Amino acid sequence: MSGQPAGSASSARPSLGDSLASDFEDGEDELPPPEWGRRRARRRTATVWVFALLIAFMAYAHSWYTDDLTNEAFLAWATIFTAICLQAMPFLVFGVALSAALTAFVPASVYRRIIPTRAGAAVPAAGAAGGVLPGCECASVPLASGLIRRGVPPSAALTFLLSAPAINPVVLVATGVAFADQLEMVLARLLASFGAAVVVGWIWARFGKTNWLRMRDQHHDPDAPKWVVFRDSMLHDLMHAGGYLVVGAAAAGTLNVVVPREWIITVADLPVISALVMAALAILLSICSEADAFVAASLTDFSPTAMLAFMVVGPMLDLKLIALQAGTFGWRFVCRFAPLTLGMALVFTFVIGGLLL
C-alpha cells in the first residue's frame, strides 16, 4: 500500500529471458573453486583411459570378428554412420566456432539492443533471422546455446534453432532443384517450417520455465584475453556436442539397417498414415537439411504432403538433433521441446500441404 501503480508488481517481475540472462551473467563473474582444475585434470585422465580401453577393445574385436565386419548389414550401418558424421561435423564446427565468437567478442548489451524485449516481436524476428544464415541443424544447437548465454530470450533463441536449418537460402535452393517440376513445394516448405518455428517459440515464451533449460556453466577468467575465452569455449562445446553427434549418428545408422523397406512401401497409399511415416523416417534417417529434399523427391510412392512432412520435421527433430539438444540443454528440456516441435511441424505440414499441394 505504498502508492505504487497497480501494474508495478507485474511489470517488476523478471521475464524468463531476463532471469536466465542475469543468472548466466552472475555465473560468469564467479571465479572457479580451487579444486576445479584438479577435477578437470582427473576427468581428462579418465577420458584418456576410456579411449585407450576402447581402442584395445576394437583391436580385440577385429581379431575375432573380421568375417562379421564384412557383412552387408554392418557395411551399410558403417556407411550411414560415417556419412552422417562427415556431413554434420563441418556444420557443427561452424556453429560451435560462431557460438564461441559470440561469447568471447560480443558484449551481452549488444543483444539487448538489437533483439526486441517482447516475445511477441522477438520470436518472429528470430525466425526470420534463421532464413538469412546458411547452416545445418547441427550448427543451430550450439549457436542457440550461445545466444541464450548472451542474454537473448530463450523463446527467440529456440525459434532461431528451428528456423535456421529449415528455411535458409541453401535449403530452399536445394528444394527448388530437387522439385524443379513442382516449385510450389519450395513455398510450402518455407511457410510450414517458419510457421511451426514461430508458434513453438510463442508457446515456449508463454509456458516455458527457466529450470527446464540446464545450461552448462562455463567459467572464464575475467582477465583472460578474448582469444583465450574463444578457444576454451570452442573446445568445451565441440568436445561435448561432438560426442552426442556420434551417439545420434550410431542410432540413426542402426535404425536404417533394422527397419525393412517393405514396411514403408506398404503404407505409402494411406494419406495421413503416409505423412506420419515420412515424419518418422525423417527423425530416424537424420539427413542433413541441405540434402533431405533430394531424398524426399526420390520417394515417389508417397504423396506431396507426405514428402513435405519429411522436409519440415527432419530439420527440426531427428536423432542427432535430440542427442545434441540433450547434451546442450538437458533431457528435461528435450522431453518437453521435442513433442511440442513434432506436433507443430505436423499441424503446419497438413495445413500448408492441404492448401498448396
From TrEMBL:
Bilayer-crossing regions: 46-65, 77-106, 157-180, 186-205, 241-259, 265-287, 294-317, 337-356
Any GO CC annotation of this UniProt entry: plasma membrane
Keyword field contains Membrane: yes
Annotated spans, Disordered: 1-37
Domain of life: Bacteria
Keywords: Cell membrane, Membrane, Transmembrane, Transmembrane helix
Compositional bias ranges of the Acidic residues kind: 23-32
Main location per the UniProt record: membrane
InterPro entries the UniProt entry points to: DUF318, UPF0718
Extent of Polar residues compositional bias: 1-13
Compartments it resides in: Cell membrane
Pfam family of the protein (one): ArsP_1
Topological relation to the membrane, as annotated: Multi-pass membrane protein
Family: Belongs to the UPF0718 family.
Name of protein: Permease
Species assigned in the record: Lipingzhangella halophila
Lineage per the UniProt record: Bacteria, Bacillati, Actinomycetota, Actinomycetes, Streptosporangiales
